Amino acid sequence: MSPSATSPSPSPASPSTPRILVPEKLSPEGLSLLRGAGFSVDNLTSPLSNEDLIRSIAEYDALIVRSETKVTASVLAAASQLRVVARAGVGVDNIDVDAATRQGIVVVNSPSGNILAAAEHTIALLLAVARNVGRADAGMKAGKWERGKLVGVEVGRKVLGVVGFGKVGMKVARMAVGLGMRVVVFDPYASEEVAQREGVELRDGLPALLPEVDFLTVHTPLLASTLNLLGEKELRSMKKTARVLNVARGGVYNEEALLKALDEGWIAGAGLDVFTSEPPAEGSVAARLAAHPKVVSTPHLGASTVEAQENVSMDVCTQVVEILRGGLPTAAVNAPLILPEEYKRLQPFVRLIERMGSLYTQHFAGGHGRGGMLGGRRFELVYHGELAGISNTRPLYAALVKGLVSSISEGGGRDVNIVNATLIAKERGLAIDEKHVRNGGAVPTYASAVTLRSLRTDEAVQAGEQVIEGYVSGRAIFISKLDRFTANFHPEGTLLILHNYDEPGKIGNVGMVLGKHGINITFMQVASLENGLTATATATTQAAGTGNGHAEKEALMILGVAGEVTDDVLGELGQSEGILDVSLLRL
Ligand SMILES: NC(=O)c1ccc[n+]([C@@H]2O[C@H](COP(=O)([O-])OP(=O)(O)OC[C@H]3O[C@@H](n4cnc5c(N)ncnc54)[C@H](O)[C@@H]3O)[C@@H](O)[C@H]2O)c1
Ligand SMILES: O=C(O)[C@H](O)COP(=O)(O)O
User: What is the pLDDT of residue 526?
Assistant: First the structure.
């Protein structure tokens, strides 16, 4: 597509090629990576309006933004196939992360790609404010030579207050120490040990820090708790000669209070890179601050270096490629971190547990069309053997939620993933406990096995318990137990599970019904109560009775079938002699 400043034009890519929208300027290294990976990329030269973004987002699988695009809940609601929102930078305050989480959309960022750039820009503003660099430059360009009016102050031997001692704050502190400044820090999460190592002094709050500083710099994210962190009361408590800096986010200083502080001389100056509205709306307080003679202002340039832009571009584009190929991000804001090798190892269990969940809903809880009676039950997912040693079982938990709701939710559970599984479980009233049984336990036969147990919440101990057990061999998945019946089958395709009296002739009767309706049996197993598998037959032929079984007791017949199993077929099977119950499963 040709770059356009307004809206994306139709992509020439084939319909199956994932599409990525980049409505802001992004370093070309990342874009080449995306295109080289075979994705279709629409990179616009300037941000889209909210309306245009809402109009076009439905066609995209990934969205990559910087700070100018507002990824609101309405944008995300229109994003029917979006899998990832990537922020080519640190701050995600322009993205509705909660809404993305609810929709199972991964949000990733570049947590450290522009940290050095932001810290250096802070130091640039510190010195520019101290030495009136902005006004001096403007004067020179206007043909003035104003030496007398522009006498500055030194920063060496002065006190710098740092609020927010995270990645940027710590780098700024180091640089300031290098400039010969004494650095005092307030961050509720900073440790004394780190402060000592960095040669800074910790303060236990703003009231203790503000009156002593000559310069103040903030490096917190913009959160409800940091909005207007520095207001009138705080600014009034500072020295009249103090100068303040903001390379974090507009709004951490209350802009009206800051304007008043500068106008009325409570403080001496400010260096501002960020504003509550960007670019500042005409006539706004932000615009008046940017134009103020005591302010050195820059248009959100903290991360705007060639190096930082290459870093963040590569960071997020690498993650987007990974996610669109079914892999994992390295810096997800709303998903737990899991190492790629661990993820790969869990994959067969993810498939197994998803099928176990789906099997549960369809076999035990009513399944298709009956609303899925999952409520009033508590689930236990028990990991045995080697699997019990895995600490990050988040993908397994998500797989169970996906499986349980797959046959009873509109999208077939496709929208359930590692990002939103807990939220969806909560919304559906699913209580799921995970247990790790390293040695022994109920399933000792396999190196790694899983038990899904469902218990009624209103009954004590094991009353009303339903059990499914499964295991993985190589990368193939098997069900080894269904309630009281020992089995061994692949949970795949269309299955019929018939609960019957274990007497001769049952298989023949069932085969006849299926044969009559032109339904092929692809495999068949009889699972018994006591001796495990009592009969196994594999067939791709037209169903025919094979007559096998034990006279007493109950058994389960598990049949893989090909052909349309209608309600009539199920009715006939249910009417067959000795059949107690029939369920149809689509796995
Ligand atoms: N201007 C730019 O171009 C630019 C570039 C990079 C980063 N940033 C912004 O800089 C800010 C800091 O980025 P970072 O990567 O260092 O983040 P970070 O998460 O590493 O650090 C933030 C720190 O703030 C602390 N904090 C939170 N609430 C606080 C409070 N009420 N009082 C004191 N400290 C508090 C946290 O404990 C944390 O240590 C972010 O807002 C980011 O968006 C701006
Ligand atoms: O949070 C950030 O990473 C910075 O504010 C950079 O924003 P930008 O990508 O719009 O320059």
Answer: 87
319 lines ligand 2 (CB under 6 A): no
Atom of ligand 2 nearest to the CA of 91: 1
Tell me if 273 CB under 6 Å of ligand 1: yes
Ligand lying nearest the CA atom of residue 302: 1
Judged by DSSP in three states, 313 sits in helix
Question: What does pTM read for this prediction?
Answer: 0.76
Q: 62-118: per-residue pLDDT in tens?
A: 999 999 999 999 999 999 999 999 999 999 999 999 999 889 899 999 999 999 999
- Examine the pLDDT at 61 and tell me if it is beyond 60: yes
- 388 Cβ contact list (under 8 Å, min separation 6): 436, 437, 438
Q: Which residues are paired to 552 by β-bridges?
A: none
In the reported structure, the alpha carbon of residue 67 is separated from the centroid of ligand 2 by a whole-number distance in angstroms of 5
Task: Report the candidate in 512, 532, 536, 508 with the shortest Cα–Cα distance to residue 522.
Answer: 536
Q: Where in the chain is the domain with CATH 3.30.70.260?
A: 494-587
Q: CA distances (Å), 51 to each of 147, 277, 359, 428, in order? A: 50, 18, 43, 33
Ligand number, closest to the Cα atom of 117: 1
Reported residue count of the chain is 587
Alpha-carbon distance of 120 to 467, in angstroms, equals: 60
Within 485-550, residue ranges assigned H as helices are 506-516
Per-residue pLDDT tens for 335-381?
A: 777 777 788 889 999 999 999 999 999 998 764 433 345 666 789 99
DSSP-derived secondary structure for 170-229: HHHHHHHHHTT-EEEEE-TT--HHHHHHHT-EE-SSHHHHGGG-SEEEE-----TTTTTS
Select from 52, 42, 97, 104 the least CA-distant residue to 72. 97
CATH T-level fold of 19-112+308-324: Rossmann fold (3.40.50)
**439 phi and psi, to 5 degrees?**
-120, 145
- How many Å apart are CA 12 and CA 7, to the nearest integer? 15
Q: Which CATH number fits domain 115-297: 3.55.50.30, 3.10.310.10, 3.40.50.720, 1.10.260.40?
A: 3.40.50.720
Q: Quick one: tokens of 353?
A: 């547990």
Distance in Å, CA 163 to ligand 1 centroid = 9
- Beta carbon of 360 within 6 Å of any ligand 1 atom: no
Q: Ligand 2 center to residue 209 CA distance, Å?
A: 28
ipTM: 0.99
CA distances from 46 to 66, 84, 300, 310, 313 (A): 11, 21, 15, 18, 16
Q: Specify the DSSP class assigned to residue 58.
A: G
Ligand 1 atom, smallest distance to 302 CA: 3
* Domain 336-483 CATH (choose: 3.40.50.2000, 3.40.50.1980, 3.30.1330.90, 3.20.20.140): 3.30.1330.90
